[in-house]
Amino acid sequence: MRAIKDSVHDYIEVEGVAADLLDTEAFQRLRHVKQLSTVRLVYPSANHTRFEHSLGVYHLARRACRHLDIDGSRAEAVEAAALLHDVGHGPYGHQTEGVIERRLGRHHDDVHDIIATGEVGRVLESHGLDTDAVADRIDGQGRLGQLVSGELDVDRMDYLVRDAHHSGVPYGTIDQGRLLRALRYVDGDLVLAEGNVQSAESLLVARALMNATVYRHHVSRIAGTMLERACERLLDETSLHAEDFARMTDDELLAALRDCEATADAAARLGTRDLYKRACWLELDETPDHVVDATHAELRDLERDVAAAADCDPALVHLDVPGRPSMPESSTRVVVDGDVRRLHEESPLVQGLQAAQDVQWRAGVYAPEPRLDAVADAATSTLGLDA
């Protein structure tokens, strides 16, 4: 057994299959992928990695399995899935997720190929574990998969607290112990036991506050959009294969961007925090539906249209439109008066948080500072913002 000192959970005891997975190349790579990617350009201390987050998720999964009397190989499969749940992330985590999905047609939770072959697969099989079953747990499939990826998963319980801790903000506080002790299975669904509506609400409040202040900070969004566009140009302009791109670390990606003529300027800007600025910052009710609901290809076409109207290089105009507001956690199941109910049906607070999401939603048009006025005028006319 290994005991690893952690900034959030104190000591994490690692044994069995998890101990053998620690030293695999796929898991060690996560030491070099930051958990909050471009958020660290806003919060300088947010330099923690997906390696330590994955250890925390494993730790909480072990506690959950003990509480729910899940043992033997079933527990080992859940613990392995918790430890490996982020091995499918590319460099800079979620910031390159869209690029990888479009190029390879897979989400970061789809890790069947990654863990079925090579070192990780051999470790799992040496412990009598089926690699497909572990990958299914990571993808949230089945009764036990809900613990790793679901409305009440241990992933969320770790990252909210960890991200708040390293960012230095007071918004991600949740009672992990109570949430874990309240977990129950009812008819195959993971629910919170009677008397825990407030516990579930606290999870959503923490997520909503972290979204507004950390995850969706406008500076991080600008940097993330610049990074995504640069990655697309890198793959278009070089012989780098998308599979190799997806297995890079953060530093390897930044080095590749620096070495490519088409992306060198973006790499330099990201490296020195010399970012584009907001030409437009739009609320939901002032953004036309055809912009809000545009596909990736349609957004790129709109960027080119704005650039043409502003008489500038299309690479200098970035249109950043998040999806329509959603809150999947609001459907968390809780036991109320003996019946399993959805949280949003029982909580006026959750209904208020859902409304707040609409108010906080923003779309952005970004450009270098010398081009801001021209791009703002072009975006207003081209996107129909003055209609």
Give structural notes:
The protein is mainly alpha-helical and 387 residues long. 54% of the residues lie in helices and 11% in strands. The protein has a 3-stranded antiparallel β-sheet with strand order 5-9-6, with helices on both faces. A two-stranded antiparallel sheet has the order 1-2. A hairpin with a 2-residue loop joins β7 and β8 (339-342). It is globular. The mean pLDDT is 95.
Helix/strand layout:
Blueprint: E1 2-6, E2 10-14, H1 17-21, H2 25-28, H3 50-67, H4 72-84, H5 97-104, H6 112-116, H7 118-126, H8 131-138, H9 142-148, H10 154-167, H11 176-182, E3 183-186, E4 189-192, H12 197-215, H13 218-237, H14 242-246, H15 250-259, H16 264-272, E5 277-283, H17 289-292, H18 296-310, E6 318-320, E7 333-336, E8 339-342, H19 343-346, H20 348-360, E9 362-367, H21 372-382
Antiparallel strand pairs: 1-2, 3-4, 5-9, 6-9, 7-8
Could you list some keywords that capture this structure?
387 residues; mainly alpha; 3-stranded antiparallel beta sheet; 54% helix
Helix content: 40-55%
Note poorly predicted spans: none
Tell me the distance between the termini: 65 Å
Mean pLDDT: 95
Supply the number of helical segments: 21
Number of strands: 9
- Rg, please? 22 Å
N-to-C SSE string, H for helix and E for strand: EEHHHHHHHHHHHEEHHHHHEHHEEEHHEH
What proportion of the residues form beta strands (DSSP E)?
5-15%
Q: Major sheet: order of its strands? A: 5-9-6
Class based on secondary structure composition and strand pairing: mainly alpha
The dominant shape is: globular
Major sheet: size, sense and barrel closure?
3 strands, antiparallel
